Amino acid sequence: MSTKIGITGGIGSGKSIVSRLLEIMGVPVYISDIESKRITCTDEYIIRELSALVGEGILVDGELNRSLLAAYLFGHPDHTKAVNAIIHPRVKDDFRKWAACRDTYDLIGIESAILVEAGFREEVDYVVMVYAPLHVS
Fold first, then answer.
1. pLDDT of residue 75
2. Neighbour tally for 108: CB within 10 Å
3. Cβ neighbours of residue 122 under 8 Å, at least 6 residues apart?
4. How many CA atoms lie within 13 A of 103 on its CB side?
5. Alpha-carbon gap, residue 120 to 85, rounded angstroms
6. Which helix (H) or strand (E) is 38 found in, with range?
7. What is residue 15's predicted lDDT score, i.e. its pLDDT?
8. Is 106 helix (H, G, I), strand (E, B) or coil?
9. Planar angle of CA 82, 100, 14, nearest 5 degrees
10. What is the per-residue pLDDT for 63?
11. Tens digit of pLDDT at every position of the chain (137 positions)
12. Is residue 18 a contact partner of residue 8, using CB atoms and an 8 Å limit?
């Protein structure tokens, strides 16, 4: 069974650099931002539920209609919770499947700016907070 580390930190903190360094060392890393975008555009449940919330135009030519989603999200504070309640559990399931396929590795990682906020803390054994002072980034 793999030890799972969660890599988190603010925008520009160096999460991606840490993830790339781990990958160079042979540690697989699930990049939640990339995977959540993929899942949001391909998962039938997510598409159906988001369409019910924001309208049928949530996908345009197979791509997420970001302006429509942004208008919905900024319309009311509870809207973000509603969208996250649709997407985050599916990403969590995808991560679990991804991790199960890599159980022969001693160490695997997941990179997420909102690791704790999205409810992924219980999915990992350790959390690594990446922080770079402003003058370094």
1. 84
2. 22
3. none
4. 5
5. 13
6. helix 32-42
7. 95
8. coil
9. 65
10. 87
11. 899 999 999 888 899 999 999 999 999 999 999 999 999 999 999 999 999 999 888 888 888 898 999 999 998 889 999 999 999 999 999 999 999 999 999 999 999 999 999 999 999 999 999 998 777 65
12. no
Q: Name the token pair of 68.
A: 């429509």
- Residue bearing tokens 């793999």: 2
Give the span between the Cα atoms of 25 and 117, in whole angstroms. Answer: 28
All domains of the chain in start order, with CATH? 3-129 (3.40.50.300)
Q: Exposed, middle or buried, 37 (CB in 10 Å: 0-12/13-18/19+)?
A: middle
Q: Identify the pLDDT of residue 62.
A: 83
Can you state the angle between helices 44-54 and 32-42, rounded to 10 degrees?
80
pTM: 0.90
Q: Rounded to 5 degrees, what are φ and ψ at 117?
A: -60, -30
Nearest to 34 by CA among 83, 95, 125: 95
Q: List beta partners, residue 104.
A: none
Tell me phi and psi for residue 80, to 5 degrees. -65, -40
